[in-house]
Amino acid sequence: MKRSHFVLSSVLVVGVILAIAGFAEEKPLFRGGVISSAPSAVGSWFGIARPCPADPASDSPTHVAFCQAVCGLCASIPGTLPPEVPMMPIFMSDGTVAAEDAGEIGRFHTSAHGHWEASSEDGLPDWMGLARTKATFFWLGSSYNQGGFPGNPVSAEPYGTCCFTNTVRPRFVAYFDPANPNEMIGFIQPYAVPAFTDPKTGLAIVVPYNGTNTLEGNHIPVAQNDLLAGPLPAGCQNNLGCLGTYHFVIRRIQPN
User: How does DSSP assign 31-81, residue by residue?
Assistant: First the structure.
């Protein structure tokens, strides 16, 4: 290969890597398959989420008002929300989102994977006229007796410490000022998808093959439903599996 071709190829590869990682000066914005150069959520982020309603004794009036705007009295299922969740979401320019959180340490679940996009006119609450980004993703989790937190300690259940027993799919909504795109305020509403595993073995319980679709034989979970594959319900509906609402601030991890 000629040196000029090698140098050009190297420059192109580096440019693609930087764009995907969100390190380019102008972050691409994913809107239903169309990329623009407006400031966006593309990049790696870090922050801490805590349950709504916000505590006025320890949190800012902005967060108290934000929780009220998002979820009112912010009902939650008792004993299901840890007091905080440090997290590291990554938004990529093709609309893919991945997320890690500290809950993976004490109560194991996998990395979360899903989709994000710019959000408007879709029924989600507006906040202070800021640009809005929304995402949804899900992870696979182990039994709840593998670790705990204050108010929900380690359980003495005999099964499940080794196995896949649950799935959680959150709604993730964040707001940012295009003039200050390196900080976002937002909320998370995690929905627990009904279990579709055998509690003793951790193996998925599947629909038997019926001869109508060769791709679905012995691979479709019995309890698969819209919470896993379709749109999430509006707001946080505890009767449909929403555990509660978190509020957070995340900041973009800057290139060194």
Answer: ETTEEE-S--S-EEEEEEEEESSP-TTTS-HHHHHHHHHHHTT----TT-S
The residue among 247, 216, 200 whose CA lies nearest residue 81 is 247
pLDDT at position 107 is: 64
pLDDT, one tens digit per residue, over 9-40 is 443 333 433 333 333 333 444 344 444 445 67
Residue type, 159: Y
Query: Which residues have a Cβ under 8 Å from the Cβ of 7 and sit 6 or more positions away?
Result: none
- The first and second tokens of residue 246, run together, are 């978190």
Q: Are 177 and 132 in contact (CB under 8 A)?
A: no
Distance CA(169)–CA(241), nearest Å, equals 10
The 10s digit of each residue's pLDDT in 43-98 is 999 999 999 999 999 999 999 999 999 999 999 999 888 899 999 999 999 999 99
Identity of residue 63: H
Could you tell me if 247 and 185 are in contact, meaning their C-beta atoms sit under 8 angstroms apart?
Answer: yes
Q: Which residues of 176-215 are buried (b: 16+ CB within 10 A; e: fewer)?
A: beeeebeebbbbbbbbbbebbbeeeebebeeeeeeeeeee
- Please state, in angstroms and as integers, the Cα–Cα distance from residue 202 to each residue in 63, 217, 226, following that order: 39, 19, 22
Please state the separation of Cα 137 from the chain's center in Å: 5
Q: Are 220 and 196 in contact (CB under 8 A)?
A: no
Task: Kindly report the number of other CB atoms within 10 A of residue 251's CB atom.
Answer: 11
Per-residue pLDDT tens digits for 136-175: 999 988 765 544 555 555 544 444 445 677 789 999 999 9
Report CA-CA distances (Å) from 13 to 4, 25, 43, 52, 79: 14, 17, 18, 44, 48
